[in-house]
Amino acid sequence: MKRLLPLLLLPLAGCAVVPAPPPDPGFVAVRPQVALPPPRQDGGLYRDGYGASLFTDPSARHVGDLITVILEERTQAKKSASTSADKQQTLDVPTPTLLGGGVTFRGQNVLEASLAAKRQFKGKGDSSQSNSLTGRITVTVAEVLPNGNLWVQGEKRLTLNEGSEFIRFSGVVRPEDIRGDNTVLSSQVGDATIVYSGSGTLADVNRPGWLARIMNSPWWPF
After folding, report:
1. What ranges do the domains of the chain cover?
2. Which of 33, 158, 177, 216 counts the highest number of beta carbons within 10 A?
3. Which of 105, 96, 83, 182 is CA-nearest to residue 136?
């Protein structure tokens, strides 16, 4: 029994380590492109390609440059629907006559009939959702598009004792929307993709179990 005890505790020891999710290739930071130095030209004080301007805009404009995105996302949606249907139908068949008299059996008209039908349906549904996300994330310029816009992407990871959290961002930024401090609002980013998620104990507690997910799925017949 003493020899089997370490083997039984080995799976529990492995569960204590929470692996972080692998990075998504679509949000990996892009390194700046290495520019080849121009050919050496002797005989002058100024060398082309090595000059520095005191009035250059420090905003991101090249592949690999950093830009800070200010996250200010607020969405609110509300939907209400109501349906009502009602239908009634009545059919009466008078007593037919045969040879001048009604068809009876034991004193009752056996061919007299009456039919009544009624259907009613009522349905009502309400849906409301509100989301908010604020913060900052610094991403890199991954590509300079032909029209001058910048495709940016990046992610930020935070590993805690009980798990890890990460936020991923990508989208298209217009150079005109970049502020003087090299920041841009997330509401001004086109085709923006924002992912905020995590893994570990805290994330597992906020996630329903597999049986609850099956019962809440649209495929559950009841």
Report:
1. 60-75+132-209
2. 177
3. 182
